[in-house]
Amino acid sequence: MIVCNTTYHIDCSVSGEFLDWIKDTYLPQALDGGMVSTPRLMRMMGHNEGGACFALQFEAPTLGQLQRWNQAVGKRLHQQLTERFGAKVAGFTTFMENIEI
């Protein structure tokens, strides 16, 4: 299983609006088509200097499928996020492989 993790730093002035947008707009579009699944949104504790930090995760069965999702959907959603929130939201994405222990 491959995990796509995007960590966001959100300006306090838009944190509520950001969460609403993630739930109402981003997630439905991200999950449409079934390329990714199992969304998780977590608030990072102790990282709130000047704003809030969140981690948004999805799973995909293979790296190739996750890369196709990122090219087809992820980039479009990132552009929408940037157009809506500008510099008040910053993020970075990491692909990770789940290792069974």
Walk me through the structure:
The protein is α+β, with helices and mostly antiparallel strands and 101 residues long. The protein has a single domain (2-7, 21-97), classed as Alpha-Beta Plaits, CATH 3.30.70. The chain contains 2 helices and 4 strands; from the N terminus they run βαββαβ. The protein has helices at 15-31, 63-85; strands at residues 2-11, 37-43, 51-60, 89-97. The protein has a 4-stranded antiparallel sheet with strand order 2-3-1-4, with helices on one face. A hairpin with a 7-residue loop joins strand 2 (37-43) and strand 3 (51-60). Helix 1 (15-31) packs antiparallel against helix 2. The longest helix has 23 residues, at 63-85. The chain is globular. The two termini are 13 Å apart. The model has no long low-confidence stretch (mean pLDDT 93).
